[in-house]
Amino acid sequence: MAKMNFCPQCGKDLITKVKDDRERILCPDEKDCGFVHWNTPTPVVAAIVEHEGDIILARNVAWPEGWFALITGFLEAGETPEEGILREVKEELNLDAEIVEFVGLYEFHRMNQLIIAYHIRATGVIQLSEELLEFQRKKDHEILPWAAGTGKAVKDWQAKRGIFNEVIEFKR
């Protein structure tokens, strides 16, 4: 996250100070302004997308070659996680989908996100959004889960199916 220098409410220079046992960025004018940047995690929805018997992994346009992961997106204000993931699958792959099962909740500390993961069954013809560069099809047992973020959801989902693949590390 980019560091904030000025209070978004009153414009004063922000300071770093311990509040509620954690270091926080806040406005020095606690009496009249009181702004505190709580840095709460952002909710993200993720889908293990099953399509025509395969699992679809996608590569974001900003990722290095060879990096593929689940379909993800930010939960929008006013929508449920279930609505959010069905919307993301439609936006990113142009597929209609139904939720098969809730997979779990996962922390992604590096991005300060809470990931809400589902197994989704989708139909239609895949058409990638401008956010995605390419996709690949894998059988459930062919996916090697990665150590962080949505890779933990893949690992748990596979384990429910008796699949215990080695976890891989992405190199940045």
UniProtKB/TrEMBL annotation:
The keyword DNA damage does not apply. Pfam families: NUDIX, Zn_ribbon_Nudix. SUPFAM superfamilies: Nudix (SSF55811). The keyword Cell cycle does not apply. Residues 40-160 form the Nudix hydrolase domain. Gene3D superfamilies: 2.20.70.10, Nucleoside Triphosphate Pyrophosphohydrolase (3.90.79.10). Keywords: Hydrolase. It comes from the Bacteria. InterPro entries: NUDIX_hydrolase-like_dom_sf (IPR015797), NUDIX_hydrolase_CS (IPR020084), NUDIX_hydrolase_dom (IPR000086), Nudix_N (IPR029401). This is NUDIX domain-containing protein. It comes from Arcicella aquatica.
